[in-house]
Amino acid sequence: xxxxxxxxxxxxxxxxxxxxxxxxxxxxxxxxxxxxxxxxxxxxxxxxxxxxxxxxxxxxxxxxxxxxxxxxxxxxxxxxxxxxxxxxxxxxxxxxxxxxxxxxxxxxxxxxxxxxxxxxxxxxxxxxxxxxxxxxxxxxxxxxxxxxxxxxxxxxxxxxxxxxxxxxxxxxxxxxxxxxxxxxxxxxxxxxxxxxxxxxxxxxxxxxxxxxxxxxxxxxxxxxxxxxxxxxxxxxxxxxxxxxxxxxxxxxxxxxxxxxxxxxxxxxxxxxxxxxxxxxxxxxxxxxxxxxxxxxxxxxxxxxxxxxxxxxxxxxxxxxxxxxxxxxxxxxxxxxxxxxxxxxxxxxxxxxxxxxxxxxxxxxxxxxxxxxxxxxxxxxxxxxxxxxxxxxxxxxxxxxxxxxxxxxxxxxxxxxxxxxxxxxxxxxxxxxxxxxxxxxxxxxxxxxxxxxxxxxxxxxxxxxxxxxxxxxxxxxxxxxxxxxxxxxxxxxxxxxxxxxxxxxxxxxxxxxxxxxxxxxxxxxxxxxxxxxxxxxxxxxxxxxxxxxxxxxxxxxxxxxxxxxxxxxxxxxxxxxxxxxxxxxxxxxxxxxxxxx
Length: 596
Ligand SMILES: Cc1cc2nc3c(=O)[nH]c(=O)nc-3n(C[C@H](O)[C@H](O)[C@H](O)COP(=O)(O)OP(=O)(O)OC[C@H]3O[C@@H](n4cnc5c(N)ncnc54)[C@H](O)[C@@H]3O)c2cc1C
Fold this sequence. Notes:
The protein is an alpha+beta fold. It contains 17 helices and eleven strands. Helix 6 (284-320) packs antiparallel against helix 10 (427-436). Residues 163-166, 171-172, 197-199, 257, 265, 436, 439-440, 442-443, 445-446, 449 line the site of flavin-adenine dinucleotide (FAD).
């Protein structure tokens, strides 16, 4: 059975040295955020994940969810109890507004917990995870009455939330939505239609399920411009807050799928169900994007989490499995063979996993601070800058983060050889679970298009210029020649990204297929540089800690060694990615569709 230990020490290092968590006391909500408080919260959260959620991960995958003839769905054994412990521990309300019963901690702390939860049990984490997205949408566009009615119970976890976009004929292209919303005399709407692939659409963990549903009102344009957003509860909520009649929304079936078996992926049938408009009519997609932006960061975190869980278990195995001898002489001379961790090809996979997970954790938390600043910094210019940066990096964190997370999980499975492929060791589950993160919340192809088609040029390219300038500035500031091992290759990789931006500007306009054909290569290139930037910061912080006589030199020396690996083995790939980008669309699009 695989195990999971929350990487609290690494997180604390990143929060302080890279994300600058303790330098934000000018921001409301950060005043009481001290190192002691954060360490206590992370230790407690990590313990819950390691001891309660991780042991349910593999059994939950094997048992899956069950749909009963009456349409009700039960989560696997143990999930209900674990969810109760989750709510009793206040984990669901950690970052929620204090007005609605939350603890008001920064989003950044929530992002850490999201990682630990997804690494220990991704399927479990999706029940409260989607609920947090739904709460965010209600918080931002809901009326005061709607917030008062729906949020407190959602924050407590007594009610969970879902997001309903996808329909059988309509996935990426939401303009095709057919679900209808007919006005009722009392101001509510009758919602009719079928939504598919709805995560946590029906289950037995919470007392009520609050569905956020995209639908079109009569006469609305038959495009994305005609979409509105509705709150559709499983049980109608009476004026006194008690639960009333069952609403006309049912789970028609649950999908049999590759991974996240313990999360119910439901077909939801709306048969004139009572719904309440959330936000303005025909502004539904903008409101839904509030959920989706937070959710995209959350999905990027899932990529990191599956990679880290797979890495931890691959390391454990590689230290114990005896096969062959080291190329440079026996390392375990008393045994008949050496542990496989001595083999460079195994090390290659483990070092890549380590360099990705630690670098990605830094990027996620550096980005999470930008989310906090964009929402709460007192100074408008600081809010704007943070928003520019996180908007630019969101598709990278989601797309690059989950592409690489899946790659790493697969490599870690490879470390176990055949034992990684059979179910007994549980490595296959990390790979299967990691796979969906590349697909939902907008496929990674769509993330790459969002990056090159919208984000790079957004607001006249302001965010792009700010980020490029930030990385260049940190390279220039890294004057200590002991950092040249990463500063120089990072400067070269940054040059590749800058050239890529220029190439896209010149050639993407002339032929949009050029941008479409190169988007994924560009996103990977930018992801490498974003992680390289984080490794530069971490290497600088570790050097400083060593110079200051840190009590933990092993930790900081390992950081520097991993930074060297990233600089030497990952960053050079930007040159070939630039070549792919600049090859343009010709060879990609030349073959007529009928020849396939
Ligand atoms: C397990 C699971 C859970 C999910 N949970 C939810 C949920 O909770 N709520 C919800 O609403 N949905 C959910 N989804 C749906 C998910 O978000 C969609 O599957 C996803 O957005 C892609 O849509 P699609 O499957 O229809 O693929 P399509 O849109 O048909 O895309 C197929 C392929 O074409 C590509 N493509 C499509 N359009 C373009 C384009 N314009 N340019 C370039 N490439 C393009 C895509 O990248 C993809 O590779 C879930 C799906 C799964 C499998």
